[in-house]
Structures are given as C-alpha cells and as structure tokens.
TrEMBL record:
GO cellular component, one term: membrane
An example molecular function term from Gene Ontology annotations: ATPase-coupled transmembrane transporter activity
Protein name as annotated: ABC transmembrane type-1 domain-containing protein
Domain of life from the UniProt record: Eukaryota
Subcellular locations according to the entry: Membrane
Family: Belongs to the ABC transporter superfamily. ABCC family. Conjugate transporter (TC 3.A.1.208) subfamily.
Membrane topology qualifier: Multi-pass membrane protein
Transmembrane segments: 77-103, 123-143
Length: 184
C-alpha cells in the first residue's frame, strides 16, 4: 500500500531536548496556523520504532520463545517486549510525583510560616522556599508531560502489535473452524 505521507520522520532525527520539550511539533503548528488547512505534504511519517512491522516482529519473536515453555503466558511476551520501554518513564514519573507533590506543600508551609511570624523564619529562608515552589512546578512540568507522552507511545505500540497479531491469527484460521465458532 502506497502511503500519501512521504516526508521522513522528524522524531528519528531530533535531539533529546526537542523530544523532552516537544518543540519538534512547532513548525507543523506554524504551518497549520499560516495556511488554510494542512495536507499530506505537511505531515511526516511515524518513527521507525512505531511502525507496525518492527513492533510486531519484536512481539512475535518473544511470543515464539514464550510458546516453547511449558505454560506460555502472553503477558510475559508483552512484558519482555514493552516492559523496559514502559517501566523507565513510569519510574521517573512516580519518583517525580513523590518528590514534587510532597515538596510543594511543605515549601508552601514554610512560606506561610514566614508570613504568620510563628516560626521566626528569616526572609532569605522564605525566599528560598518560594523559589523551591517554582522549581517544583518546573520539575513537574518537565517530568510529567514527556513521561505521559512516552507512555502513550508505548501503549500505542502495544495495542498495534496485539491487534496485528490477532489479525494475522484470524487470517490463518480455516473456514471450517470459523463456521463452528460464534462471535460472542
């Protein structure tokens, strides 16, 4: 099947900071804002890692290894294929949530203590606590959005690989076995 989108993937050629701050989509937004509508010439292909053929081959090879075992489990094949891609962003996200979400209220409490005058806190300590609130907010934004996007990417790959494997299995089924089974 010939694709209407011929431009190479921008995701494969950008640096770490562009991926982190999602600045690679700004030229597309700018083109969409300046023109009436976007067309296929403005779009780029998906990343090589997101192509169905690559993802399905990885899952299929892990599933073939798992099927040779005595009690094969499909979720083990999924975990071997996508586990590391999923665990790293979740770990970063979870650690950031624990540090930032707990740190912000504590720092806000220090600032409020300064204004209440209850704790004899100095002006410099209150300013450092206020700066810490800003740093926590910046950390949250910097960690949350890229990790969320990465998890959505991995979920898309997982869904794509599973549905492609099911489709391939359906194509292999014989017509007689299809006549014997019901949809539900």
């Amino acid at each position: 099947v010939e694709s209407k989108i011929t431009n190479k993937s921008r995701w494969d050629s950008i640096n770490f900071l562009e991926k982190l701050f999602l600045t690679w989509v700004y030229p597309l937004f700018w083109k969409g804002w300046r023109t009436e509508s976007l067309s296929y010439e403005h779009l780029s292909r998906c990343s090589k890692d997101d192509e169905a053929l690559v993802v399905v081959q990885q899952l299929e090879s892990n599933w073939d290894i798992e099927r040779r075992k005595r009690n094969p489990k499909f979720w083990w094949a999924l975990l071997k294929t996508f586990g590391l891609q999923f665990i790293i962003p979740v770990t970063i996200f979870g650690t950031g949530e624990c540090i930032v979400r707990i740190g912000q209220p504590l720092l806000l409490g220090f600032v409020l203590d300064y204004f209440r005058g209850a704790n004899h806190m100095s002006y410099q300590h209150a300013c450092m606590a206020a700066g810490g609130i800003v740093v926590c907010s910046a950390l949250y934004i910097t960690l949350h959005h890229p990790c969320l996007m990465r998890n959505l990417q991995v979920g898309m790959r997982l869904r794509n690989a599973c549905t492609t494997l099911m489709y391939q299995k359906c194509l292999k089924l014989s017509q007689s076995s299809l006549a014997k089974t019901t949809v539900g």
